[in-house]
């Protein structure tokens, strides 16, 4: 694999090809296949390549539009290289165990165990960028270990949602017209989604005032009221208001009526920020936008 996916205006993305080819161009550089070549064990190649491309694409789009500084593109390598390093370790070990020629009981046991545990390691639901310089987590303990890159694939299970994790879905979100949605239907590849967990309309205006500074369509807002609440009336500037009818969103994101939180979900479906107030959200967007 390449240990950096960017060199000036040249970017590497994905790949299992034996030859190098240009797969995309922009005013800011060339996108070239391939960044990594590895055993097909685990079936990680295509998914990893798509994640490479998606991680780069939304950042490149913001830079092309003049909304972000070109330095944002350096976070592509920062975020993806540790993930690919972890992926190569997992798939190489899986290949060695499954392809063993050892016929003794110990060798067969390793092969069987590798097959049984395969799905736990390669579903990719645990892939994260918790160490990234452009994520912000105000709930992260100050004494949490700094070597977060070592768990880029999420192999060390952690049930606590952190900034940099894949944004999980939550069903049974009901709007004022009785229509039901899930979070994944609201998130989108062309915009950030700011999810405000609150039943108090008064907390919304500072957020809306902040977000008015950004071009329309770049950031969308979703207000989620807690289970059992009557929800909020339509508020100018808010794209969508729903009630967490099943309680799934509040539980999954660790929100409560006592501690309102706000979550920013990136275009690539990653939690960019978990903050307790508008000041934190402002600091997060300062990392991304001019």
UniProtKB/TrEMBL annotation:
Record keywords: FAD, Flavoprotein, Oxidoreductase
Matches recorded under SUPFAM superfamilies: FAD/NAD(P)-binding domain, Thioredoxin-like
Top-level taxon in the UniProt lineage: Eukaryota
GO molecular function, one term: FAD binding
Sequence ranges assigned to domain FAD-binding in this UniProt record: 33-88
Domain Phenol hydroxylase-like C-terminal dimerisation: 243-288
InterPro entries, per the entry: FAD-bd, FAD/NAD-bd_sf, Phe_hydrox_C_dim_dom, RIFMO-like, Thioredoxin-like_sf
Listed name of the protein: Uncharacterized protein
Protein family (similarity comment): Belongs to the PheA/TfdB FAD monooxygenase family.
Cofactor dependence: FAD
